[in-house]
Amino acid sequence: MKNNTKIGVAIIGAGNIGTDLMFKVQRSALLEMLLLADITTDSDGMRRAQESGVWTSAEGLDAVLASDDAKIVFDATSATVHAAHAPKLKEHGKIAIDLTPAAVGPYVVPCVNMAEHLASPNVNLTTCSGQSTIPIVAAVSRVCRVRYAEVVVTTSSMSSGAGTRRNIDEVTTTTADGLRKIGGADESKAIVILNPADPPITMRNTIYTEVENADSQKILESVKDMVSALQRYVPGYRMTVEPRVDGDLVVCMTEVEGAGDYLPRHAGNLDISTAAAVAVGERFAEALLSRESVSA
């Protein structure tokens, strides 16, 4: 039965990301986990959902569209699949939060630009690389012009599934786009490295920016403020090297450790995406609950 103090949500895709997201949604004070949909029931994610009392369906998108109570839909499938899902979700009046690099809707990073897109029916979470590096570039760009941004993101190959590997070109392109569209850089480049080390490494990011009129103290304060904002929904995010200014070049290094909800802690690249998705979903839920309160 629908909880009237929360907004009902559905997740499409019962893989690693969808399953980890499910556990995070179940802890939310604003989101009610109603449905996990896939095209098969034979997965650990579907079994975990059933064990925790979540309705599951192997009818995929059709099951989600038939659920009137699911107002917000997280799509954790693939770029190609979400492109097909998007118009149908919009037609049925559902808010779509896209965890694929499909880039159908506007790019959103919760701690940077969420307030600008609360009226959008479809938002895109860029990529895990984007969620971890765009905030730093945005922090630098709000205190000085960023002519160029380049990020090098290294993740464990053990935490990069088939979907990520299939979409690796989209991941790098979408990340680079986000560095400009959200981060504020004039030009940008993203490099993603899958590291096969065993034991697996945590997600590590090196963020380079070429700036004008660099003020070391202002840059440091802005980046620290941004990291604090990001840590509110990704506690495992931290700076390993504070911003270093050398002429017009600024270098910062960060890493992301996962919360260990479903995925191993080294999979910070996946955890930051699911944590960001919940943060975005909760902002939409607040807006929907506010409208319901006004109309009551």
The strand count comes to 11
The helix content, as a percent range, equals 40-55%
Number of domains: 2
Oligomer class = single chain
Please report which band the strand proportion falls in: under 5%, 5-15%, 15-25%, 25-35%, 35-45% or over 45%: 25-35%
Q: Gyration radius, to the nearest Å?
A: 19 Å
The helix/strand order is: EHEHEHEHEHEHEHHEEHEEH
Helix tally equals 10
The chain-level structural class is: alpha/beta
Largest sheet: spatial strand order:
3-2-1-4-5-6
CATH superfamily of the largest domain: NAD(P)-binding Rossmann-like Domain
How does the major sheet shape up?
6 strands, parallel
CATH architecture of the largest domain: 3-Layer(aba) Sandwich
Can you walk me through this structure?
By secondary structure, the chain is of the alpha/beta class. It folds into 2 domains: 7-125 and 272-295, NAD(P)-binding Rossmann-like Domain (Rossmann fold); 128-266, Dihydrodipicolinate Reductase, domain 2, CATH 3.30.360.10. The chain is 40% helix and 25% strand. It has helices spanning 16-27, 44-51, 61-65, 79-91, 110-113, 128-141, 162-166, 168-181, 216-231, 268-295; strands spanning 7-12, 31-37, 55-57, 72-75, 95-98, 122-124, 146-156, 187-195, 203-211, 237-246, 249-256. Strands 3-2-1-4-5-6 form a 6-stranded parallel beta sheet, sandwiched between helices. The model has no long low-confidence stretch (mean pLDDT 94).
